[in-house]
User: Fold this.
Amino acid sequence: MKRERMSRNRKLTPIIKGRTISTFGWDDATVLLHFDDGSELRIHARAAMKGDTPSVTLGRVVAVRQSMETIAFDLESGSAMLIPLAEPTSCVMLRDAKGVLEYAD
Amino acid sequence: MFQHSDSLGRARRRAIGGIALIATALAIIACERSAASVPKARETTIDATRTPAHEDSALRFPFLPDPARTPGAALEVTAADICVSGYSKRVRNVPAEVKRRVYALYGVRSHEPGEYEIDHLINLSLGGSNSIRNLWPESFRTSPWNAYVKDQLENELHRRVCAGTMDLAKAQQVIARNWIIGYREYVHPSPLPAGPRKYRQPRARNAPQSQTAVP
Assistant:
């Protein structure tokens, strides 16, 4: 199987670098990541992933990598949270605690 | 006999003339019908400056995207989101791999720099998304409708939404359904001249070299 190349998301990484993922949840086919500063990241995930929640390691984000099929959050602990995307783009949206849009894919 | 023959000849000529007139009239009617049945938005006037080598790719979808491939897609955003300065910069750039997929989807095998842009049918400033369902190769070179002209409609619709005179969903619908009809309705009945020149920063030739106030 061909291994997918994941490159750093240069727009999202500087925005959420240093924020800590405090909760992980689902809203239908959308993954919800809540950060310690009150911001919320919504990710349209591949439906197959639902119910197959990865062994979530919550922690501080140091980088975000992304390919056509997956988004990965590299954590300070050295682990990474990988989430399969519903489509290559248009799946990720970040709003701050006040609901102001910070990032969209 | 000659008179009879002559009158027969005249009758024949009249009959032929009549047939020719009827045929011409029918041809005109047919032309008008076919012209009426083709939406004006599908007119294909080709820029005469283009060389034949370029015609293969740019002619396939000259003005409008294929609605089956590019129906348009929008983010879950509101007018309050998009009317903030710098909104579009918060949206990720379309990855090169996605652009390649869009070209492939439209059968564009090769193109020159500056021939196309991968356009957001619903533009980013109206909440359009990077979904492949919202992307299509739009030509800069076709005439009279091209990417520069579409930009005028995009700006006008954004202005209306942010002025509160048009609903965001309505604006998205206008541009996704048929942007040329939208242009004719909201910008101008015919395309106004537009080109890359308008993107250049105006130079203030007579501006002073220094802004420092002289006491």
Observations:
- The first helix of chain A runs from residue 13 to 16.
